[in-house]
Write a structure and sequence with these properties.
- The chain has 2 domains: 67 residues, VC0802-like; 70 residues, VC0802-like, CATH 3.30.2130.10.
- It is 33% helix and 40% strand.
- It contains 5 helices and 7 strands; from the N terminus they run E-H-E-E-H-E-H-E-E-H-E-H.
- Strands 1, 2, 3, 4, 5, 6 and 7 form a 7-stranded antiparallel sheet that branches.
- The protein is globular and about 45 Å long.
- The model has no long low-confidence stretch (mean pLDDT 92).
- It comes from Methanobrevibacter gottschalkii DSM 11977.
- InterPro entries: ACT-like_dom_sf (IPR045865), ACT_dom (IPR002912), ACT_dom_pair (IPR045739).
- This is ACT domain-containing protein.
């Protein structure tokens, strides 16, 4: 039930993020979720997009280093303590959260949370046992 995310490594200098986003736009690739983390020398642009293969090919052709990895997308109650109650599941099971980012959509009452965890299989099992709604790749286009 994991979803593929792409990570784009960008130099931390003017115009590089725009260049990556423009590359996707030119290929008519829709960005469904985005996060960026930066250091003094580079940034990591994390994206959930409409077409990973096409996005990776276009970005690599434009000179970007791209990696694809798995994340979990969750529908979390969009209310106080919604995220905290979900994170408590990982604490109880001793599962380390590497990173997360979130967004809301007008098409759902839930907040959508993208998570990368140290042990993805154990995390998915814990979430299923707790009846947390895990989204699939095909759910992304409906958000």
């Amino acid at each position: 039930m994991a979803v593929k995310q792409i990570s784009v490594f960008v130099e931390n200098k003017e115009g590089r993020i725009k260049k990556a986003i423009n590359t996707l736009a030119e290929e008519n690739i829709n960005i469904r979720a985005l996060s960026i983390a930066d250091t003094t020398k580079y940034g990591i642009l994390r994206l959930i997009v409409s077409d990973n293969e096409k996005a990776i090919a276009a970005l690599e052709k434009d000179g970007f280093i791209v990696k694809e990895n798995e994340v979990i997308l969750l529908a979390v109650p969009d209310k106080p303590n919604g995220l905290n109650s979900t994170l408590a599941i990982f604490d109880e099971k001793g599962i380390n959260l590497e990173y997360l980012y979130a967004f809301v959509s007008s098409k759902t009452d839930a907040a959508i949370v993208v998570m990368r965890l140290e042990n993805m299989e154990k995390a998915i099992e814990a979430l299923q046992d707790s009846n947390v709604k895990i989204l699939k790749t095909e759910d992304i286009k409906d958000l």
